UniProtKB/TrEMBL annotation, chains A, B:
<feature type="binding site">
    <location>
        <position position="106"/>
    </location>
    <ligand>
        <name>S-methyl-5'-thioadenosine</name>
    </ligand>
</feature>
<dbReference type="InterPro" id="IPR029063">
    <property type="entry name" value="SAM-dependent_MTases_sf"/>
</dbReference>
<keyword id="KW-0808">Transferase</keyword>
<dbReference type="GO" id="GO:0005829">
    <property type="term" value="C:cytosol"/>
</dbReference>
<feature type="binding site">
    <location>
        <begin position="137"/>
        <end position="138"/>
    </location>
    <ligand>
        <name>S-methyl-5'-thioadenosine</name>
    </ligand>
</feature>
<comment type="subunit">
    <text>Homodimer or homotetramer.</text>
</comment>
<dbReference type="GO" id="GO:0004766">
    <property type="term" value="F:spermidine synthase activity"/>
</dbReference>
<feature type="binding site">
    <location>
        <begin position="155"/>
        <end position="158"/>
    </location>
    <ligand>
        <name>spermidine</name>
    </ligand>
</feature>
<feature type="binding site">
    <location>
        <position position="31"/>
    </location>
    <ligand>
        <name>S-methyl-5'-thioadenosine</name>
    </ligand>
</feature>
<comment type="function">
    <text>Catalyzes the irreversible transfer of a propylamine group from the amino donor S-adenosylmethioninamine (decarboxy-AdoMet) to putrescine (1,4-diaminobutane) to yield spermidine.</text>
</comment>
<dbReference type="InterPro" id="IPR037163">
    <property type="entry name" value="Spermidine_synt_N_sf"/>
</dbReference>
<dbReference type="Pfam" id="PF17284">
    <property type="entry name" value="Spermine_synt_N"/>
</dbReference>
<dbReference type="InterPro" id="IPR030374">
    <property type="entry name" value="PABS"/>
</dbReference>
<dbReference type="InterPro" id="IPR001045">
    <property type="entry name" value="Spermi_synthase"/>
</dbReference>
<dbReference type="InterPro" id="IPR030373">
    <property type="entry name" value="PABS_CS"/>
</dbReference>
<feature type="binding site">
    <location>
        <position position="62"/>
    </location>
    <ligand>
        <name>spermidine</name>
    </ligand>
</feature>
<protein>
    <recommendedName>
        <fullName>Polyamine aminopropyltransferase</fullName>
        <ecNumber>2.5.1.16</ecNumber>
    </recommendedName>
</protein>
Length: 276, 276
């Protein structure tokens, strides 16, 4: 008998994986959490029915949310991650040779626990000497920190449930204030094919706070449409220019991908109001 | 009541679209053909259960299979398309200002008919004065033509059913011989995430015939993993360099996408044996 786990990526589009085992299913104080074993992608973490990460393709998202800002900032010593409780983005941060400290602020301790229990290749980051794990509301945390971080990464779920406030202009202003005078923010900003209004909201919100705003793309097969966007806000440094050392070895990111990721298809340029 | 059409992109991965209507379902002499109306992507053409094209994302595949070779060849006057019976690649070819003649050789007349009946934005190409439509076996056709074409595009299905021979070294040698002395071949070569062995077969086969071989990528949300590869074989001209005029306007392709598409993630470089 085949068991299938289906994410409805939109109300009209289902993404179904053959599954051999359900490792965890629970209601946390913040969301529904599940970990299943899929034949196609290995272990898969879902929150509120949406695929967050899998063994087989986690490298794309985690490398690409972290490495672009880390490598375009000349001296990314202190890095803050909001969300990202699986630890994957933190893994890339603490591996970076210039980083002294990676602080991860996750609201839901059960996400961290699921990662510790089932995703050792992600959760390994929590025990790194450079890492600090804080279970707290990222919105509140960031308001209490000013002029402190070189890079901030926002590794959120979609703008539903606990993540809604992470897509607001007020939050981006708080990020701006928590960054040092040459700091850089990178956030996941959904699919250009399915979520153009989210991209416009994020790009517009960050543009209103930061002098430099830019969008880049990566290919995540378990995310809706397979094409994912990230938006960078920078106070000083052009995020398209590489200035610091790379982690090695990586599976997706390299120097030419860093630059190529900012080259947008015409329909994506149109979403953010750029000339085609 | 919701009706759903599911493509099993792999034996362990289903891609399901909510569907309001089945416009056609038939067994042609070569394959199973269906046209359905989906809520997410508009009308969708399926062959042997695999999504071939949809109203909403056809632009990516058709622009990207055609424009890279057309724009890197300095004088693409005579172009041959093998397969591509929906007419989408032919549309891009005959719109190109340097093209005098676009010949399409499709084995299955019922694919052409389905396009004429349901995809007018693709089938419009058949009535272009530059276009010639031939219903014939592409393998046989290409063996009978030598030193004739500037560019050949192979717009095939997956290497199952009638398309198997379109992935063979003998076929690439026939393409080489059908091209003029500075000609260029571009073929669809499947997903780097799911079909690495197909990419190796295509890249290896083309490399054995052509002095220049290169791989480039594009994002097609209705194809497995959303990331799709194309392989170019060239007798003389570097396919990464733009030499002739572009079609305008386009929805995906632009000059920076042309160059960026050749920048490969490390795991894709490894598939084709390039240093990372």
């Amino acid at each position: 008998m085949d068991l299938w786990v289906t994410e409805y990526q939109t109300p009209a589009l289902g993404f179904s994986c053959k599954s051999s085992e359900t490792l965890r299913i629970e209601k946390t104080p913040f969301q529904d959490l599940a970990v299943v074993v899929t034949e196609q992608f290995g272990k898969m973490l879902l929150l509120d029915g949406m695929v967050m990460t899998t063994d087989c393709d986690e490298f794309v998202y985690h490398e690409m949310i972290a490495m672009v800002a880390l490598n375009s900032h000349p001296d990314p010593r202190k890095v803050l991650i909001i969300g990202g409780g699986d630890g994957g983005a933190l893994r890339e941060v603490v591996r970076h040779p210039k980083v002294d400290k990676g602080v991860l602020v996750e609201i839901d301790a059960r996400v961290v626990q699921a990662s510790r229990d089932f995703f050792p290749q992600l959760a390994c980051s929590f025990s790194d000497p450079k890492a600090e794990l804080i279970i707290a509301d990222g919105i509140k945390y960031i308001k209490e920190h000013k002029n402190e971080f070189d890079v901030i990464l926002v590794d959120s779920t979609e703008p539903v449930g606990p993540a809604v406030a992470l897509f607001s202009p007020e939050f981006y202003q708080s990020c701006f204030e928590a960054l040092k005078e040459d700091g850089m923010l990178a956030v996941q900003s959904e699919s250009p094919f399915f979520n153009s209004e989210v991209i416009q909201m994020v790009y517009g919100g960050i543009s209103r706070c930061f002098p430099l705003t830019d969008l880049y793309l990566a290919n995540v097969p378990t995310y809706p449409s397979g094409l994912w966007s990230f938006t960078v806000g920078s106070k000083k440094f052009d995020p398209q220019t590489i200035r610091s050392l790379s982690n090695q070895p990586l599976k997706y990111y390299n120097e030419s991908i860093h630059k190529a990721a900012f080259n947008l298809p015409n329909f994506v340029k149109e979403i953010i109001g750029l000339d085609v």
